[in-house]
Amino acid sequence: MSKTIAINAGSSSLKWQLYEMPEEVVIAKGLIERIGLSDSVSTVSFEGDKHVVVKDIHNHTEAVSILMNDLKSLKIIEHFSEISGTGHRVVAGGELFKSSVLITDEIAKQVEELSDLAPLHNPANVAGIHAFRALLPNATHVAVFDTAFHTTMPPVAFRYPVPNDYYEKYAVRKYGAHGTSHMYVAQKAAEYLGQAPESLKLITAHIGNGVSLTAVDGGKSVDTSMGFTPLAGVMMGTRTGELDASVIPHIMAKTGISDVAEVIDIFNKKSGLAGISEISSDMRDIIKGRAAGDAKATLAFDMFVNRIQKYIGQYLAVLNGADALIFTAGIGENSVEVRDAIVSGLSWFGLDIDESKNVVGADGVISTPNAKVKVLVIPTDEELVIVRDVDKFK
Ligand code: ADP
């Protein structure tokens, strides 16, 4: 028996989940928020209790040491050495990392060098990596890349129609994201359907705060909706998804915003459901607003659904038909309304939901027996993929 911890370090947060392996049992989990700001909050969930501490945590190194000491003081572990593996979600692996890797000094340097592709995330990922390697010198440390699953995309999907130099010299291409989640639910779908992954054409729809869809052919990602960064693709909680790039200079000229980074920040943080509804980025609030007849919430909901439907249409074309559509993540797993709205507009393609199966807590097939394209709900589990990958290197 040994313990392995999955780490997801964001720009100002650190999410973790501690497992007993190889049993794959979650022992404890937690979240440290507001790192680098005042009144940081560390929450540890253990044996049904939530332990919350508020204090200033200045950086990720400090966050890791607080987390490790919390594990000891709450008697979740006795010694640091009980944790024999750490798995780090890394957002951008570029073209370099096609699968998970054992972290060495050289790998940590390469992850840092890829920061251009994820300026908010990769530096935080590297800080987490350094902190754990310092505190647990004898553990196995593994990097698991959000982009790895998408490295099988062919050039016809990943290239942008811009001058070749931009790709060749500046690495401008589609990388995608949420790869661990798309891979996990695609594999699970094959299990649920009792078929080999190699024989299946799937469309996986990860619909949470961030939203991405992937066309999976024979177990491999062949196209995905997120792009050079997670701003691309469908409309999301606070992100635009795709729009005409010419909007950017127009907004700058009209509003007087002189820094393009500010416009990109608005596209990332103040757009999507939040920008259209002017209520919230949270789908539960949008659904409430829509039910109460709020016109902006209704438009936000309809636009959100429409963008997802259009990507499903694209991927039915890319794959030349599909065996199944899989819903996952916060909205995909929980929202009966969103699933129903998406699928009910796609009946011509052979998608048909069974209303008695499209319920809260659904897990598995929710389509009617005769549906040409099956529809499934599969709860994602990115942390489990991460700790399994760590154990492969032990
Ligand atoms: P993240 O991308 O941050 O990991 P999640 O996958 O947790 O996000 O998804 C968050 C989204 O899931 C929010 O928009 C939230 O409203 C939505 N969500 C969670 N539960 C429900 C529910 N019961 N009905 C509708 N939406 C839900």
UniProtKB/TrEMBL annotation:
<dbReference type="GO" id="GO:0005737">
    <property type="term" value="C:cytoplasm"/>
</dbReference>
<keyword id="KW-0067">ATP-binding</keyword>
<dbReference type="InterPro" id="IPR043129">
    <property type="entry name" value="ATPase_NBD"/>
</dbReference>
<keyword id="KW-0808">Transferase</keyword>
<dbReference type="GO" id="GO:0006085">
    <property type="term" value="P:acetyl-CoA biosynthetic process"/>
</dbReference>
<comment type="function">
    <text>Catalyzes the formation of acetyl phosphate from acetate and ATP. Can also catalyze the reverse reaction.</text>
</comment>
<feature type="binding site">
    <location>
        <position position="382"/>
    </location>
    <ligand>
        <name>Mg(2+)</name>
    </ligand>
</feature>
<comment type="subunit">
    <text>Homodimer.</text>
</comment>
<dbReference type="GO" id="GO:0000287">
    <property type="term" value="F:magnesium ion binding"/>
</dbReference>
<dbReference type="GO" id="GO:0008776">
    <property type="term" value="F:acetate kinase activity"/>
</dbReference>
<feature type="site" description="Transition state stabilizer">
    <location>
        <position position="178"/>
    </location>
</feature>
<comment type="similarity">
    <text>Belongs to the acetokinase family.</text>
</comment>
<feature type="binding site">
    <location>
        <position position="8"/>
    </location>
    <ligand>
        <name>Mg(2+)</name>
    </ligand>
</feature>
<dbReference type="GO" id="GO:0005524">
    <property type="term" value="F:ATP binding"/>
</dbReference>
<keyword id="KW-0963">Cytoplasm</keyword>
<dbReference type="InterPro" id="IPR000890">
    <property type="entry name" value="Aliphatic_acid_kin_short-chain"/>
</dbReference>
<keyword id="KW-0460">Magnesium</keyword>
<dbReference type="InterPro" id="IPR004372">
    <property type="entry name" value="Ac/propionate_kinase"/>
</dbReference>
<dbReference type="Pfam" id="PF00871">
    <property type="entry name" value="Acetate_kinase"/>
</dbReference>
<keyword id="KW-0418">Kinase</keyword>
<feature type="binding site">
    <location>
        <begin position="206"/>
        <end position="210"/>
    </location>
    <ligand>
        <name>ATP</name>
    </ligand>
</feature>
<feature type="binding site">
    <location>
        <begin position="282"/>
        <end position="284"/>
    </location>
    <ligand>
        <name>ATP</name>
    </ligand>
</feature>
<feature type="binding site">
    <location>
        <begin position="330"/>
        <end position="334"/>
    </location>
    <ligand>
        <name>ATP</name>
    </ligand>
</feature>
<keyword id="KW-0547">Nucleotide-binding</keyword>
<feature type="binding site">
    <location>
        <position position="89"/>
    </location>
    <ligand>
        <name>substrate</name>
    </ligand>
</feature>
<dbReference type="InterPro" id="IPR023865">
    <property type="entry name" value="Aliphatic_acid_kinase_CS"/>
</dbReference>
<feature type="site" description="Transition state stabilizer">
    <location>
        <position position="239"/>
    </location>
</feature>
<feature type="binding site">
    <location>
        <position position="15"/>
    </location>
    <ligand>
        <name>ATP</name>
    </ligand>
</feature>
<dbReference type="GO" id="GO:0006083">
    <property type="term" value="P:acetate metabolic process"/>
</dbReference>
<feature type="active site" description="Proton donor/acceptor">
    <location>
        <position position="146"/>
    </location>
</feature>
<comment type="pathway">
    <text>Metabolic intermediate biosynthesis; acetyl-CoA biosynthesis; acetyl-CoA from acetate: step 1/2.</text>
</comment>
<keyword id="KW-0479">Metal-binding</keyword>
<protein>
    <recommendedName>
        <fullName>Acetate kinase</fullName>
        <ecNumber>2.7.2.1</ecNumber>
    </recommendedName>
</protein>
